[in-house]
Amino acid sequence: MSSDDQLNLFNAPSSEVSAHTDSVSRELIPTDANVPIPAGTYANLEALTDHCRQCHRCELGSHRTQVVIERGNPQASLMIVGEGPGQQEDEQGLPFVGKSGQLLDKILASVQLDCHRDVYICNVVKCRPPNNRVPSTTEMNACKPYLLEQIRLVDPKVILLAGATAVKGVIGDKRGITKIRGQWMQWEGRLCMPIFHPAYLLRHPSREKGKPKWLMWQDIQAVREKLDHLQAIGETAES
């Protein structure tokens, strides 16, 4: 805020001071991780996207080609949260479009979930970490308020957390993904399930019983069943 703006506030009604301060604070959101993003800050995903594209709340903004915010249906009942963009995501500006994303789409299709219609996909951080390293806690914390607003605006019935970083970044659980994958968890009144990240499945291609791909098949079937159950409950309540 400039010195002239500060001086002018002394002569303004208190309601105008509050509105001006709120406006200035909102403008500063993409510039400083210390500026909070309270729930309800964004009226819609378009407004959130506008800020994300300007964002330099952490150092990742200095390295990106594009901000990677979302793909899929903002009205979907299922949200998938990954770690962060890779090279192809950074170039295309969309999450999960490389080999991992292609595998994810196949996994969803195996239980008749369309990646365009039935799912909303995003990441814990919106900018690619250099050399595809794991995002730091500072970087995740800077970006998390955007993610929380995405969750609020999309309002999914089920959230899948793809990989340990997504689990840590969203719900704060630091346990290894092999210990918690496939388990239903309650978080902020929402159903969540940690699952293997598709990149992990690419590194472990065996389909044998008990192997990661076999376990993923069990998990995605459970997700499909849960979505069907929740839909049936909703239809019963409306009738």
Shape label: globular
Percent in strands: 5-15%
Structural category is alpha/beta
- Output the radius of gyration: 20 Å
**Strand segment tally:** 6
How would you describe the overall organization of this protein?
By secondary structure, the chain is an alpha/beta fold. It has 10 helices and 6 strands, in the order H-H-H-E-E-H-H-E-H-E-H-H-E-E-H-H. It has helices spanning 3-9, 14-28, 45-54, 87-92, 99-109, 137-154, 164-171, 177-180, 198-203, 212-238; strands spanning 71-72, 78-82, 119-123, 158-162, 185-187, 190-195. Strands 1-3-2-4-6-5 form a 6-stranded mixed sheet, with helices on both faces. Strand 5 (185-187) and strand 6 form a beta hairpin. The relative contact order is 0.12. Mean pLDDT is 91; it is low at 1-21.
Task: Describe this protein with a few key phrases.
about 45% helix; about 10% strand; about 240 residues; alpha/beta; 10 helices
Summarize the structure.
This protein is an alpha/beta fold. It is 47% helix and 11% strand. The protein contains ten helices and six strands, in the order αααββααβαβααββαα.
